[in-house]
Specification:
This protein is α/β, with parallel strands linked by helices. About 35% of the residues lie in helices and about 15% in strands. It has 12 helices and 14 strands. α4 links the parallel β6 and β7. The protein is globular, with a radius of gyration of 19 Å. Bound molecules: (4S)-2,6-dioxohexahydropyrimidine-4-carboxylic acid and zinc ion. (4S)-2,6-dioxohexahydropyrimidine-4-carboxylic acid (DOR) binds next to loops.
């Protein structure tokens, strides 16, 4: 097959950032995605309905002319989030709340320290038919960074899913076989997003032969057996697993630093790279479900009606992009060949 047409995809997890950065990130995503779930980890974070609405306006203002791209807004849970905050978010059209364990990742300092005290908020999310999106890693420093996702499942995920049985939970950017197995065996209403980097790479791609900061993201890339489990589950085509790029821009100097930021800026190539993976796996027929159907169904949103076409054609991801403030950024897969192209 040299050409594939699918319903226009959505990106169920990404980072647009703010201000002039939006002029780069919003068009890059709107080029092929109809909707995107926008992460709220700004500085300061998007913790309330009002902040989410204002952020949405800034995103809409950065859309290319004529674009119908629609951001799906989220709020950021803190130790102080109240049931009232959830009700107000619902009224403002916010669909989901993002839970970062405090300190787990970029701009998560205001995240949650005591998960236990958030159960009333989780109940409120369920009552309001909103989703809980989880960064599933523990933050205890004595726990090996490669084990933090599995530990989160054992310490917290099992409880959340069982104690709030009507809550829709998305286990974001999963990286391990443990997470795959957990989601597969979990009750209805539990799903996961998977990034292009976790399907394409393993920790050797970050550390073998030199350190590659542009492949550093969180949760960190794992060993190849985990990568294989992710590839196997998208190959099987379970509707519990769908597209979330976690596209997360950081300027070049912030990545290439003695304490480099986590995140891969994949918006320029993510859809093409997912297509490449599904092609390698011999299941191009499963791409549409993963990219365009299962996420919308899980969120309870209508499926898109437009289509996009990808063709088998090699192109090279730029080695550098200039951000609106003049800083260079190195996109994910920079300088490498991609075998599919958006028509
Ligand atoms: O690699 C990551 N980058 N993981 C996250 O969880 C956050 C993100 C970011 O905001 O840069
Ligand atoms: Zn993210």
């Amino acid at each position: 097959m040299n050409e594939i047409t699918i319903i226009k995809p959505d990106d169920w997890h990404l980072h647009f950032r703010d201000e002039d950065m939006l002029l780069e990130t919003v068009p890059a995503t709107a080029r092929c995605f109809e909707r995107a779930v926008v992460m709220p980890n700004l500085v300061p974070p998007v913790t309330t309905a009002e902040l989410a609405l204002r952020y949405k306006e800034r995103i809409l203002a950065a859309r290319p002319a004529g674009s119908s791209f629609t951001p799906v807004m989220t709020i950021y849970l803190t130790d102080k989030t109240s049931v009232q905050d959830i009700k107000e978010a619902k009224q403002a059209g916010v669909l989901a709340a993002k839970m970062y364990p405090a300190g787990a990742t970029t701009n998560s300092d205001s995240g949650v320290n005591s998960l236990e005290s958030l159960y009333p908020v989780f109940e409120a999310l369920a009552e309001n038919n909103m989703l809980l999106l989880i960064h599933g890693e523990v933050t205890q420093k004595h726990i090996d960074i490669f084990d933090r996702e599995k530990e989160f499942i054992d310490q917290h995920m099992v409880n959340i899913v069982e104690r709030v049985p009507n809550l829709k939970v998305v286990f974001e950017h999963i990286t391990t076989k443990d997470a795959v197995d957990f989601v597969l065996s979990a009750r209805e209403g539990v799903a996961a997003t998977i990034t292009p980097q976790h399907l394409m790479l393993n920790r050797n791609d970050m550390l073998d032969g030199g350190m590659r900061p542009h492949n550093y993201c969180l949760p960190v890339l794992k060993r190849s057996t985990h990568q294989q489990a992710l590839r196997d589950v998208v190959k099987a085509g379970s509707p519990k697993f769908f597209l979330g790029t976690d596209s997360a821009p950081h300027a070049k100097h912030r990545k290439e630093s003695d304490c480099g930021c986590a995140g891969c800026y994949s918006a320029w190539s993510a859809l093409e790279l997912y297509t490449q993976v599904f092609d390698e796996l011999g299941v191009l027929d499963k791409l549409e479900g993963f990219a365009s159907l299962y996420g919308a169904d899980f969120y309870g949103l209508p499926r898109n009606t437009e289509t996009v076409t990808l063709v088998r054609e090699s192109w090279e991801v730029p080695t550098s992009i200039t951000l609106p403030n003049g800083d260079p950024i190195v996109p994910f897969f920079a300088g490498k060949q991609v075998s599919w192209k958006l028509k």
